[in-house]
Amino acid sequence: MNRFLFALVLLLVPFTSRPRRAPDRPLPTLIPARCSLYVEACGLQERLREGLQDPFVRTLLDSKVGRAWLRDRATPPAEALRAADTWLGTPVLPLALGLVEHGVALGVDVASDKAVAVAAGRDEAAVSLGLERLFGALTRSTGWPGSVERPAEHWSGADVWRIGEDAVIARRGALVVLGNDESLVRETLELAADDATRGLIGRAQFASPYAERAPAELWAWLDVESLEPEGDAGFHELREAHRSPAFLSLLGPGLAGLATSGAIAASASLRDDALLVTLSGQDSASPAALAPGARSGPVPPELPTREHLAQALVYRDLAALFVQRLELFPAEVQPGFAEAVTNGSLFFAGEDLCEDVLAHVSPWIRVVMGNPTFREGAVPELPLPGVVLVGVLEEDAGESWIGAFQTLVSVIGLDQAQKGQKGLRLHLERAGDVELSLARYPKPGAADGVDLRYNLEPAVTVVGRYLVVGTHASLVAEVAEDLMHSPPLETAPGIESLTLDGRALAAVLERNAEALISRKMLDEGIARERAAKEIEGLRLLLESIDEARLEVDGVQPTRPRLELRLELARAPEPSR
Amino acid sequence: MRPDFLRPWRAAAWDHGAASHLLRRAGFGGTPAEVAEALSLGPQETLERAFLDRGDPSLHASIEPLLSAGGIESLQAWWMSLILESGAPLRERMALVWHDHFATSNDKVDDVRLMHRQNELFRASGLGDFRELLHDVARDAAMLVWLDGNSNRAEQPNENFARELLELFALGIGSYTEDDVREVARAFSGWGTEGRSSTFRAEHHDARPKTIFGHTGAWTGDDALELVLEHPACCRHVARVLLEAFVMPSPADEWVEGVAGLLLECEWGVARTLEVLLASELFFSSAARRSRIAGPVELVAATARALDARIAPRLAARMASDMGQALFRPPSVKGWDGGRHWIHSGTWIARHNALVELATAAQVGDGRVHVDLERSFGDALDALPGRALAALIPNGSSTRFEQTLASAARGARDANHARQVVAAVVLTAPEYHLY
After folding, report:
1. Residue B157 confidence (pLDDT)
2. What pLDDT score was predicted for residue A111?
3. Are B341 and B298 in contact (CB under 8 A)?
4. Cα dist. A70→A60, A64, A75, A540, A541 in Å?
5. How far is A444 from chain B (nearest CA, A)?
């Protein structure tokens, strides 16, 4: 071997020896414990390896909303990637993969609004090369502030660059740490130098959900309790959801549980064209007395699909809410309860609202949202969807509900008459086998326009043990007919659920697009073209969802869980 | 022969102050670029442009889909959007004047469609023949609801509309008797609404003879309006309205007489009258300039234009409401008291807060205000006080005020802060509120 060849071998030895790899340890061990928000991108490596051919990326780009997004882009993704390759002077995806191959995580200290990101690269050489290329390109193209040719400082065995006033980038072996706060970056580097299991993973409230996490593209954890000192009035109101009768009645105990959780773990993943998002609460304060299953009762069955926009099954034990109001709710809401009980007795012909009325209704209620059929000459200019509630009553309880409905409409009509307005008028009608009590406004004059209030044509009927009440008679009749030969289910599912038809909702939005565009123009002071584009974006987003299903599991009141599954609609292949 | 004060003003004195004055009175002020353009065009062409309608049709139509929802806030925001856009400055200005004059409030009418229809009437006919406008207003459904037309029946006349017609809309106190009010009310008996349309119910009309201003006949409502228009006090009353809105408060009787004569010469044409009035020596006189306290709507709109700012219309309407001028909700049939009544301890705080927010805001109301002070005032800090004063209080500030601004600018953290501080001090100075 001549001397030239020997020298060449010596030069190559360092590159063929085993590279220094990133530490094989969970990323939360590197994030300081004071961080109240943690986000880990778990599937990023796959995305970078496969690029635009990655199934996740392809699903998103092939969805309707993805196609629409692509239409608006001046540069197609493949071309943008090629431009990035040119800008960096090397293929961007392999370079990025080298920087993050063992994971990326972000920690945010919400109280101080400071953040630190950690990327565990393939090995020291890959990370060095990646940073070198990145710094070089940034310096060439943007005149990046501060010198990045060589590290400005060295901390805890790491090279440190300072960018601008706050940003700090550090590299320690195959680890890159980026932050907008020096102390957070220093803490992270100290954790990296220490083999002991510390950092965020040392917090039991974090460690437990982290250990239990299922595979997902994105996993996050938020220490909600720590946000309380910084939270605004709305945040504090949300944290008191378990003591709010309105919240519990409308949104239910499961969501109240999530709102009051001490911490929340979240994940997002893509499975078979469906986007799955889960939220799991810890140490929630939702009242056990109102949790699904606390009182048993028959369940209204799922209704056959008739182009319904949404269907939900909810658990609302209004009897328990009223009976236990003194234990569950603060003093300031008690007068409201007293008023409701008194008024309730008036409407229900002197019966006790709690004992004689609500206690005889199953806590499981089905909610259906659909498009009503409006009367000729009374089709609202802004036609809105209607809502129908289905409850299960004990035998013979139906009559008092119909009486209460009629009394309520009479009282409203009286109030409107006193104001000189044309009020709701009561009617009794038959639709097929269903007899309806309903109320409607008199038809407007031909030149008067049809106002929003014509969306309201409230109706009630009792079919067997079902009480069917809704905002529009046509919908109530339709649902009642569907229920006529379906007995209630005696076994409760234990979870609340909501199913939405994205395309049907998109159609509603399209019907009312002009009003939404106008409202946006006046609210935001933007031109019609921009407002129209934003509404169209929202419509496309809805249209790209075949079905959305939300499940809320509040059986264990201290550990509520929410799962959202979005079935993404594929865009039709472009015609050739 | 026209009086001297209505002679055309000498354009030789056409300067930044005069251009700003014309843009403010014949509209809602101008952006720095528009003031500069007016300077180069001269007063005649600037005034001609104020009469043009160059508005965005999509903005004008934007209220249509929202009317059925019935929220007055949307209607307020919509009108504010037309005022802010300034596509038809004089037309919108005149609509605001008539809204104050024929003050009708949704608080009683409680029908956004009717309020919108009345507003469109002021927009379409406000610069036309006052006689036609008066007839149309008397038939307007919002007015009929507002002043109880539906309960004006032969057997029990309701005098509300008749009284306001004589006292506020057409003649003024002292020009009629109580008997005239009663007789005019009888003439309008049977005028009411059916749904959202005006209607005449012959069975409720008192067809017997009436004596109005000494003239006896079986007068109808339209006849009564003609008698009112023939009354010599009517043209003086309208002339006073135009002088107070466009020239100065409390105009001299001599000027009122002169403009009343002009109005008759122009066959009650409001636009034709304004063409002469807004080009006159009286209009450009030093007594007329900055003689009015800006009303909230014009203050918000003119500030936005002077700063070349973008304000979301709904937020702008809310700001004006907080300052005491909620569009479509005047406090009474007399409209807004205006003048010194615009400013009291409550409304001053609202004025102060809104203007400081505009001056300092990158973020107001969810970021729905965008102000670029560097573009408005330039980047040279030593010229900042002078440029801010020229833009905001043309010809109306003192050297001492400029020195105060320079001192405030020197104390600022940086250039942007200096611009914000200077803008805030100028906008909250008493001088700024004189238009």
Report:
1. 96
2. 84
3. no
4. 11, 10, 8, 12, 13
5. 8
- Residue given tokens 């000459």 in the structure block: A377
Q: Which are the contacts of A35, defined by CB distance < 8 A and separation ≥ 6? A: A107, A108, A109, A116, A184, A200
Asked if residue A79 lies in contact with residue A87, where contact means CB atoms within 8 angstroms, the answer is no
State the distance between the two ends of chain B, measured CA to CA, in whole angstroms. 31
Among the partner-chain residues B56, B78, B195, the one whose CB lies closest to the CB of A522 is: B78
Please report the pLDDT score of residue A16 as a whole number. Answer: 35
β-pairing verdict for A310-315 and A274-282: unpaired
Q: Which residue has the higher pLDDT, A63 or A478?
A: A478
CA torsion B245-B249-B252-B258 (nearest 10°) is -10
Question: How far apart are alpha carbons A542 and A537 in whole angstroms?
Answer: 9
Q: What is the pLDDT of residues A139-171, one digit of tens each?
A: 777 665 556 667 878 887 889 988 877 889 999
**pLDDT block averages, 10 residues each, chain B of length 435:** 93 90 96 93 96 91 94 97 93 98 97 97 98 98 96 96 98 96 98 94 97 97 98 98 97 97 98 98 95 96 92 95 97 96 93 90 63 83 88 82 90 88 93 92
| DSSP letters spanning B329-395 | --SSTT----GGGG-SHHHHHHHHHHHHHHHH-S-STTT-EE--HHHHH-S-GGGHHHHHHHHHSTT
Distance CA A78, CA A558 (A): 48
Report pTM.
Answer: 0.86
User: Cβ contact (<8 Å) for A524 and B113?
Assistant: no
CB-CB: which of B56, B113, B313 is closest to A522?
Answer: B313
Give me the residue from A380, A445, A522 closest to B62, CB to CB.
A522
Domain segments of chain B as ranges: 296-433
- Of A508, A544, A547, the closest CA to residue A386 belongs to A508
Q: Radius of gyration (Cα) for chain B, nearest Å?
A: 23
8 Å CB contact between A288 and A294: yes
In 3D, which of A55, A44, A21, A32 has the Cα closest to residue A110? A32
Of A450, A518, A524, the CB nearest to B65: A518
CA distances from A550 to A287, A323, A536, B319 (A): 21, 29, 24, 41
Q: Where are the domains of chain A?
A: 2-221, 284-559
Give B198→chain A minimum CA distance, Å: 11
User: Residue A239: which region, alpha, beta or left (left: phi > 0; alpha: psi -120 to 50)?
Assistant: alpha
Work out the burial of residue B186: count CB atoms within 10 Å of its CB; fewer than 13 is exposed, 13-18 middle, 19 or more buried: buried
pLDDT digits (tens, 9 = 90+) for A312-339: 999 999 999 999 999 999 999 999 999 9
What whole-number distance in Å separates Cα of residue B370 and Cα of residue B365?
11
Residues in Cβ contact with B366 at an 8 Å cutoff, skipping those fewer than 6 apart: none
**In Å, how far is A250's CA from the nearest CA of chain B?**
24
Question: Does the beta-carbon distance from B312 to A382 stay under 8 Å?
Answer: no
The ipTM, to two decimals, is 0.91
d(CA A65, CA A71): 10
CB within 8 Å: A519 and B66: yes
Contacts of A444 in chain B (CB under 8 A): 195
Cβ–Cβ of A447/B65 closer than 8 Å? Answer: no
C-alpha B359/C-alpha B51 separation (Å) is 30
Give residue A573's pLDDT: 62
Distance in Å, alpha carbon of A448 to nearest chain B alpha carbon:
5
Q: Report which DSSP code applies to A549.
A: E
- Amino acid making up residue A477: A
Q: Residue A159 is inside which H or E element, if any?
A: strand A158-163
| Interchain contact, B68 vs A518, CB within 8 Å | no
Q: Is residue A470 a contact partner of residue A399, using CB atoms and an 8 Å limit? A: no
Give the angle subtended at the CA of A420 by the CAs of A415 and A422, to the nearest 5°.
80
Q: How far apart are CA B29 and CA B86, in angstroms?
A: 9
